[in-house]
Amino acid sequence: MPESRLKLEREIASAQDELEAARRKLVKLRRQLPPEPVEDYELKNADGPVKLSQLFGGNDDLILIHNMGTGCSNCTMWADGFNGVYDHLQSRAAFVVVSPDTPEAQQAFARKRGWRFPIYSAEGTTFTKDMGFQWEEEAFMSGFQPGVSVFRKEEAGRIVRVAKDSFGPGDPYCGVWPLFDLLPDGPAGWNPLFAYPADSG
What fold, for 36-166? Predict the structure, then answer.
């Protein structure tokens, strides 16, 4: 093996060790955050109003995805990925997706995509803004941003948020980006589409 390649492989191994150490530190720091009390918001699905506390089912923990809605191809790609591992996710904690779309639009889109996870509407509520995933500025899709909130329901029934994170290209919540990073040219300006030509390979 050429010395130059050996040197680069050692640097890569060292960088991977540093990245793993940083990841473990991040996990540890997040778990030190004090729980953030959250009110029992009322969301909606196709059957009508649903309280946040009901989304837990029989679980103590709830992973809630903040999705920007049917107009965002990136959010759709993340949700497609969660759909594939939904059985694994819901075996450990309750898992739902929330977007600003109407329940009717959500259900139609979910059927088209083949999504199996529960999806709820925050339309007409301050839930998304209060959780920090909507800004006042009129930006793309009225300032909505994608991400995740993790909640715990305590024995007394109080709901607290124990963790949150934002989504974006290259994050660890979508397996597409790390795989594309292994390509010689990386993503090379690629962006997800809602559908691809059948002959694209």
Answer: Glutaredoxin (3.40.30)
Report whether pLDDT(200) > 90: no
DSSP-assigned states of every residue in 146-192: -EEEEEEE-TTS-EEEEEEEE--TT-TT-THHHHHHTSTTTTTT---
Q: Specify whether the CB–CB gap between 62 and 56 falls below 8 A.
A: yes
- Is the pLDDT reported for residue 82 higher than 70? yes
Task: Give me the pLDDT at residue 142, please.
Answer: 65
Residue 110: CA atoms inside 13 Å, Cβ hemisphere, count?
23
Is residue 21 over pLDDT 90?
yes
Q: Do 87 and 115 form a contact (C-beta atoms < 8 A)? A: no
- CA nearest 60: which of 157, 138, 133? 157
pTM: 0.92
Whole-number Å distance between alpha carbons of 4 and 197: 42
For residue 97, the 8-state DSSP code is E
Say if residue 195's pLDDT is above 70.
yes
Residues 6 or more apart whose CB falls under 8 angstroms from that of 117 comprise 79, 82, 83, 86, 89, 90, 95, 96, 97
Going from N- to C-terminal start, the domains of the chain cover 36-166
